[in-house]
Amino acid sequence: MASTDLRRRKAAHDFLLQKMETIFNQLEGPDLPHRHEYFTILLVKNAEGSHIIDYQTYLFGKEEVHFVSPGQIHQVLTSSEPKGWVITFSREFLMENSISEAFISNINLFRQFGETPPLKVDTDIFVQLERIIDDMQTIINKGVRYRQRALGALLQLFLIQCTNSCSLNMDQFNDEDSGVCLFRDFKKMVEEKYMDWHQVNQYADAIHITPKHLSATVKKISGKSAKELIQDRITLEAKRLLRYTSSSIKEIAYRLGFVEPLHFSSYIRKQTGRSPSQLRESI
Known about the structure:
By secondary structure, this protein is of the alpha+beta class. The protein has helices at 20-26, 91-96, 101-107, 123-142, 147-164, 178-193, 200-207, 211-222, 226-244, 249-255, 261-272, 276-282; strands at residues 5-9, 15-19, 34-36, 39-46, 49-53, 56-59, 62-68, 73-78, 83-89, 119-120.
């Protein structure tokens, strides 16, 4: 099993812009699987190798954008010097620039769990994204007044350009829709409580609605039931811990809120078709 660091790496800066080639040349060895407390964007002009996000492998290509959410485990494996940029920013940066996490959630580019494939963009869009990066670099180098505000505005423009270049469920953008707000609150709560709360009714009680109403709303917006989303999050963390840690299956079971390891093993087999030990060997 490869070495890894599952402790969340804190951001050294609230906003940081780096060239991919600079990071590549600074590494003293291969990148190890790790997780951050901050958001990460890779604007890839050209690269060979792969980007692993939560045990899913995505081959690098040309003119694409990768998004990594706080808490996701990722690893960049490149056989030669890549060309592109890496943007990292913290939740504090968002708050200081009046960028709500609702905006980040609604654009649906950063996904806390589930598949997170890169966004392929055409050349015209990629050129626009590069220009925004150039503007960011100019602001950083010149140290202009209201620097953080300017970077925040450019970050929003960058994300909006990305959103406009892909097909999304536009229902998720309506902040005035009560269902959208409910779905967003539910997703946030799942991320906070999935180790302790495994049942839909626990989330419904906390939101003060019926489990039936919660499930119907989540299904309408996401295509999955509330139960399926909770199970997806638990299963993802189980896979992370099985692959990237040496914790015993018993320890992982207790960590994920299962009273008995046997219940955990039965759950994993039902969700994946494999036992935890078989899953650990295969991922």
